[in-house]
């Protein structure tokens, strides 16, 4: 028994499966700088991989590589669009804007001590791959952004762009997208109060699926995504972590589709609006009980993004015990 | 008068139902699905929503919630109970009302202002209406098609237990345009449309829904 196990390990030590089968620690990464890593498969370009090595002064561990790949994806870092988005920061400040760029959603004063928060976000690639679940989880994400600002979500809207109305591909994608947006919001009690729809050849193979959520709150109820203070507990709650959606932002959102590519279907997450409804009520209750220092929702990059963004916006680091994450299936 | 509104996991219109009770002049009392405590209420409303995410079947899991055992016991002793939309589905699954709600015949979710014809004005929840009166309240469902065997439906009609029928168009393919039914004693009523969304001019198509809640307050006083 012992012998065969040892032999197995020594095979792995020299074979190509070594990294996948053994804990890739920082020490190991530092002592094996030239090991090949699947950065390209994770959606990173060669110059980005070189930059990671430059920052760390060594190659990343497999876990670090996976985190970089999602954090540096277009979905999370807006690397191609941030030059345009920055212009909003140059606009003259308004007294009505209570919370601006950098948080989960903006907050606008509407008088009498009330504020509304709203945000629109795309879920284009997932919706193209799996229309119903892609659009549904797009709504789920935007609702959580509103919720984490401290507001009760009250309505959703959508803005959709498809290729020609009579194209077979439009017929494949459109019904599921419409049903996904409406169905998910409805299960949360959120009416879809409006939207817009355009068909044009330029969207063939690349439909745009944007969902908006609006929430209402009192001024004093605004919450921010900052983990400040020493000794606070970090609590993960909501749907269990599953195998669906892994790498969804880096593999799905950042690359174009081609017919020869491998099937990417499993990267689209499967929505659970019932759990999100419970999440809404649970969050509003713990806000009301004043138990929260900072809160961040999990988006496409999951725990990697939520923990690092919370920590970097706050005043210190964060210990994350991944072994305690509740999984949808046995790991 | 204390009118209980049950919140199940996934209930969505519980706050609206409580507001309707208050606007009608009653005292809304929040009831929790997991308790065995009806808090001495004089009547109970099961609100709309997606209790337990409609998993298994709409209303099937909520019908087995701890509090529902108390509701069934008290309902059998005459406690007035109103089930709206998902609440109607729960009452059917709990055996308090006959029939079942299935997927709409056209397979689409349908949300619109709906005309209903009042068929019974002597139940606990419809005293303030008149037989033959037409009211307009919102309907919003994907699984609202009322069905039963022909024999069951004949018996139901023979016993005059249809409370509301859809008028000016049936939104979901319900058998014989049935929108709501009642128990033998007329104290339990279930319907798919939403009276609690038609209680204020600002937000509803009418205030026609208020009659449900004013009716039960009088029914409780007279009981």
From TrEMBL, chain A:
Residues the entry annotates as binding substrate: 122-125, 144, 269
Binding site for ATP: 78, 119
EC number: 6.3.5.3
Start and end residues of each PurM-like N-terminal domain: 102-217
Residue numbers binding Mg(2+) 1: 121
InterPro entries reported in the protein's UniProt record: PRibForGlyAmidine_synth_PurL (IPR010074), PurL_linker (IPR041609), PurM-like_C_dom (IPR010918), PurM-like_C_sf (IPR036676), PurM-like_N (IPR016188), PurM-like_N_sf (IPR036921)
Occurrences of domain Phosphoribosylformylglycinamidine synthase linker (ranges): 36-79
Subcellular location: Cytoplasm
Keyword ATP-binding among UniProt keywords: yes
Pathway per the UniProt entry: Purine metabolism; IMP biosynthesis via de novo pathway; 5-amino-1-(5-phospho-D-ribosyl)imidazole from N(2)-formyl-N(1)-(5-phospho-D-ribosyl)glycinamide: step 1/2
Annotated catalytic residues: 75, 123 (proton acceptor)
Keyword check for Transcription: no
Every PurM-like C-terminal domain range: 230-327
SUPFAM superfamilies with a match to the protein in the record: PurM C-terminal domain-like (SSF56042), PurM N-terminal domain-like (SSF55326)
Class of the enzyme per the UniProt entry, highest EC level: ligase
Catalytic activity: N(2)-formyl-N(1)-(5-phospho-beta-D-ribosyl)glycinamide + L-glutamine + ATP + H2O = 2-formamido-N(1)-(5-O-phospho-beta-D-ribosyl)acetamidine + L-glutamate + ADP + phosphate + H(+)
Subunit record text: Monomer. Part of the FGAM synthase complex composed of 1 PurL, 1 PurQ and 2 PurS subunits.
Family: Belongs to the FGAMS family.
General function of this protein: Part of the phosphoribosylformylglycinamidine synthase complex involved in the purines biosynthetic pathway. Catalyzes the ATP-dependent conversion of formylglycinamide ribonucleotide (FGAR) and glutamine to yield formylglycinamidine ribonucleotide (FGAM) and glutamate. The FGAM synthase complex is composed of three subunits. PurQ produces an ammonia molecule by converting glutamine to glutamate. PurL transfers the ammonia molecule to FGAR to form FGAM in an ATP-dependent manner.
Name of the protein this chain belongs to: Phosphoribosylformylglycinamidine synthase subunit PurL
Organism of this sequence: Blastococcus brunescens
Lineage of source species: Bacteria, Bacillati, Actinomycetota, Actinomycetes, Geodermatophilales
TrEMBL record, chain B:
Cell location: Cytoplasm
CDD domains in UniProt: GATase1_FGAR_AT
Pathway the protein takes part in: Purine metabolism; IMP biosynthesis via de novo pathway; 5-amino-1-(5-phospho-D-ribosyl)imidazole from N(2)-formyl-N(1)-(5-phospho-D-ribosyl)glycinamide: step 1/2
InterPro entries: Class_I_gatase-like, PRibForGlyAmidine_synth_PurQ
Gene3D superfamilies with a match to the protein in the record: 3.40.50.880
Subunit structure as annotated in this protein's UniProt entry: Part of the FGAM synthase complex composed of 1 PurL, 1 PurQ and 2 PurS subunits.
Function, in words: Part of the phosphoribosylformylglycinamidine synthase complex involved in the purines biosynthetic pathway. Catalyzes the ATP-dependent conversion of formylglycinamide ribonucleotide (FGAR) and glutamine to yield formylglycinamidine ribonucleotide (FGAM) and glutamate. The FGAM synthase complex is composed of three subunits. PurQ produces an ammonia molecule by converting glutamine to glutamate. PurL transfers the ammonia molecule to FGAR to form FGAM in an ATP-dependent manner.
Name this protein carries in UniProt: Phosphoribosylformylglycinamidine synthase subunit PurQ
